[in-house]
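Protein modeling request. Please complete all fields; requests missing the sequence field cannot be processed.
Requester role: graduate student
Desired output: 3D structure, token encoding
Chains: 1
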Amino acid sequence: MRSLQLWFVSVAVVAFGACGDKSGMMTGATGQTGDPPDSEGDDTEEPEDTTGPGASSTTEQTGGTDPTSGPLDPTSTSAGGTSTSAGFIVPPDGGISGQCDPRVQDCPEGQKCTAVAPAEGEPWGVNTCVEIKGDGAVGDPCDVEDGKYTGIDNCGVGNICLLTDDEGAGGVCVEFCDTNDACPDTPTANCVVYNDGSLPICLGSCDPLLQDCPEGQGCYNSAGDLFVCFKESAMPGEGGPGDECQYINQCQKGGFCAATAAVANCPPMSAGCCTPFCPVSGGNGPCQAGEECTPFFEMGMAPPSYEDVGVCVIPA
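Delivered output (316 residues):
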């Protein structure tokens, strides 16, 4: 299942960070700066859809489209290109026409700027103008037409439908960040940037020890010292301690996709393995034999209220 892939790297836990998010979202940037550190975190193939945050940043190429050329009609088949199911034009040279800025919403009247797949079978990677087909506000239920990465949804301007299934159904409207990396409609959210910058989105902040996210979502690490709610993609019986993971949200909620060498019973050739978050003050209760509850952040670097956040890893 391809979903948002978010690759996150913990500033203080670099030694045991490994994975990204497997939601089709790649973590391609750090939280509020918008600079790509690795790539979920989040798809890109690193430690999914809102469920899921690791360590390095992969990017989706945009095809070299000139962003200054102005948006084209996303429903057109003219300009010598071929219309795809995603609704944007693929010119003969393979680029994507009509790119835009989702932070600015610089599309013609009747259209909105959103994230789409640069090619069939890939996650979000470019921004283009699509027809507005609804006025869904932040938090409203939504669906995406013709698959989760087409960008054609019933959310209003400035919002995108995320956290859907692979067919694009059952999602929630999520706000794009503005040019100041702020979230005007969801002020308690964090601005995090994924998939080569094509997904600057506002995700709810959370506590990895409390796992205080909405049903179906887990609290995962993203962009250094941020924790955000994202769709939990682990199937029943998967994503537990010691289970292999490639994306952060491939772990059950309450878990972290860590480097192979940091987790007990982790297959040596795996990309990473899941391990529980744990309260440093509570000892090694949730940990596997041979692991210790180690502070997630270096001493003095934990953000307020996250000082007791730890993760079960093999002592260095």
